[in-house]
Automatic annotation (TrEMBL):
Residues 144-265 form the GFO/IDH/MocA-like oxidoreductase domain. Residues 350-382 are annotated as: Disordered. Pfam families: GFO_IDH_MocA, GFO_IDH_MocA_C3. GO terms for molecular function: nucleotide binding. This is Putative dehydrogenase.
Length: 382
């Protein structure tokens, strides 16, 4: 199944029958099914009732409780992972070995070591299956328009950037046992909440060179942080700040990029439309130029549908999707570097974290006060 006839629908299977599958993935898949681009052939979940219930509600012909059985019997071309991050590595590798492409919900996996293991399971050819991450904020008309102008040099050099994900989560949210734990949630707001805005920032700004981070546990009784900040230097010389919080009653997601010829701002919460972007030209920029910059075209909101549409087209055309391989790893590496810097007090450079570095395999890096108690006990015994 390492190639696909571009004129036939992709056979898609959903793994995980929880809220994100029902709210985001299945509506997107249904839309593309109506357009003849995909055919949803199976759903799998460890809870038989959940799998059967979702299959019945969504008109999916087959329900499974075992991933390997589903892969062997349903033979999907595309596996959509809507499961917790702790199982993403093994599930992605199983799907890739079965010859299926993977579209994996964020957080992609708990460590760079896991990510690299998934990538090593790919065969690497242009038409061979690969794993991609759900980073839907990169997609839609607004991000596409601004990226084209920014990367094309229309705004001049990017100089200063700000990225803000300041949300609010109460004690009831963290009463769910798997939340706030390194092993099951993968990290705090830097990993589980702000990852989308961070990913969009890096997509717009290009490669990062150095990060200096801070993290704190100010309110919630959790293993992970509940707020983090970072200073970042980009490879092109620009500097920026990143703030992630689950302590902020006035919730907002925001990106601002000051360039030589314009300021670009995006303000929203969980998804953006054209109207959420604002472009302010610098003094001296002709009005007709500014008017062209503000011509976003037809409004396609950022969404799982917007990304899935591009992913399916990429698979059928034999192209690498933007959030696969290096295009997805860059964001996870940045977040890992933020944690390492925050917990060690030292700046971290791009490319610094690799095999042998404790942060390569665990985002907490075994740091005192941050690593889970059982991890510290194992290290003490060793």
């Amino acid at each position: 199944m390492s190639s696909h006839r571009s004129n036939s629908p992709l056979r898609a299977a959903v793994v995980g029958a929880g809220g994100i599958a029902r709210a985001a993935h299945l509506p997107a898949l249904r839309t593309l099914a109506d357009e003849g681009e995909v055919d949803v052939v199976a759903v799998a979940d460890v809870a038989a009732g959940a799998a059967r219930g979702l299959a019945a509600a969504a008109g999916i012909p087959h329900a499974f409780t075992d991933l390997d059985t589903m892969l062997a019997e349903a033979r999907p071309d595309l596996v959509v992972l809507c499961t917790p991050p702790a199982v993403h590595r093994e599930q992605s590798i199983a799907a890739l070995r079965a010859g299926a492409w993977v579209w994996c919900e964020k957080p992609p996996c708990p460590s760079l070591a896991d990510f690299d293991a998934i990538e090593s399971a790919e065969k690497g050819g242009d038409t061979d299956p690969y794993a991609a991450i759900v980073f839907q904020h990169r997609f839609g008309s607004g991000a596409r328009h601004v990226r084209r102008l920014l990367h094309g040099g229309a705004f001049g050099r990017p100089l200063v950037a700000h990225c803000q994900t300041t949300w609010y989560r109460d004690a009831a949210y963290y009463a769910v046992p798997w939340r706030g734990r390194w092993a099951t949630e993968g990290g705090g707001p830097a990993m589980g909440h702000g990852i989308h805005q961070t990913d969009l920032l890096l997509d717009l700004m290009g490669p990062w060179a150095e990060v200096r981070g801070m993290a704190a546990r100010l309110v919630h009784d959790v293993e992970t942080e509940d707020v983090s900040t970072a200073q970042v230097r980009f490879a092109g010389g620009a500097v920026g700040t990143v703030v992630n919080s689950v302590l902020s009653p006035d919730e907002v997601s925001r990106i601002r990029i000051d360039c030589e010829r314009a300021t670009i701002e995006l303000t929203h919460l969980y998804g953006h439309r054209n109207a959420d972007w604002r472009i302010t030209p610098a003094p001296g920029v002709p009005e007709e130029t500014a008017a062209d910059w503000r011509g976003f075209g037809a409004d396609e909101p950022s969404s799982h549908l917007a990304q899935l549409r591009v992913l399916v087209a990429d698979v059928k055309a034999g192209r690498r999707h933007a959030t696969s391989g290096a295009g997805g790893r860059r964001t996870l590496e940045f977040i890992t570097a933020l944690y390492k810097s925050a917990f060690t007090g030292a700046p971290v450079s791009a490319g610094e974290i690799g095999p042998g570095d404790p942060y390569y395999t665990e985002l907490h890096g075994g740091a005192p006060g941050w690593a889970p108690a059982d991890t510290r006990e194992e290290e003490d015994r060793a």
